[in-house]
Amino acid sequence: MRWRAIISFHFTKTHVHEVTQLEPLLEPLWDLGNVYADSGYLSTENCRLIVGKGGTPFIRPKCNSIGWKPGTKIIYGNPYHDMMQQYKKDPNAWMKQYHQRSVIEAVFSGLKRRLGGSVASIKRGVQQVEIALKIIVYNLMMLLRKYVEEEYF
Description:
By secondary structure, the protein is mostly helical. Helix content is 50%, strand content 7%. The radius of gyration is 18 Å and the shape is globular.
């Protein structure tokens, strides 16, 4: 079993678009490997950021994304366009790789099932502390589970 830990999280103000939040999430990380994200994170800047940190972007294209439609001209040497070219070259293989993102969704689901999907606090600062503590407890639970499985199974 892989250790499915939450290694980075970031709080935003209300009504902030996802596309602007990838940099703070990836700031403490290097040598990323494959990075899976939903289409809310799709941008040229985010693809460059991922590649700059040693990663390969797998951000699902939107139906109106440049490079999505057959025959659309693609500029090479740009990580966004390289990702789109890989998608256009073999959409089925690309989507199979992209669906590793379901592991991320499973981690969020597990956290909510084990520790609850809502917060009891009213004040925003206390809500953030409560969420951070839930993440820490979840990671400790996963670490303990991994230790027990390696030790006894």
